[in-house]
Task: structure prediction
Amino acid sequence: MENKIKNVVLVHGAFADGSGWKALYRVLTQKGYQVTAVQNPLTSLEDDVAATKLVLDNQDGPAVLVGHSWGGAVITEAGNHPKVAALVYVSAFQPDNGESALQWLMTAPPAPENGVLPPDDKGIVYYDKAKYHAGFCADIPKEEAEFMYASQGAFYAKGFTTPITHAAWRDKPAFACIATEDKSIAPEIQRAMYKRSNTRSADVKGSHVIFMSQPEAVAGVIEEAAAVQA
Result:
């Protein structure tokens, strides 16, 4: 791994937590990478960015910063950290300055399988349990989907509407995996974002959680990002 970045920091999205990265963690660590999964509080964009920066502070050198879904908005802001050498978006939001994740989500009609519910009286957004497997993670086993649902964090809706102040992808190399069968963030939304930013993207056949169902393919894109000169 000479001349390669060896640190990888993984940032999960809404309706999930850091444990979802286990399969990808295994693949990357077997290849010699040092991997850390951030546990986002999901209370606001600012709080998730702060949690990510805390992990980045503790890296012993340059890192590839990886975000899934909502985590894409987080890495877009947190990626300005000096230790971040490259960004990887995994079926993730990639807003520009002044844009929010919600703005992009609204650019295409939701899939029938999508189960994102309106915010409750505390401002928290949940995913309809009956739709979670089909709408969020159709290509992982039912038992795994049930555990993922049970272990998710509480996502505060205000994060979705908070605009980005400084999009890191404007200054740093960006890579992406497009989930071709995504029912949570439509593939056409992903393509539009990554095309706009000239992000080097690869199609990965699978659901919104391709990092779980296709960890080798996602790891391949992370390895490409790790080869950039830090």
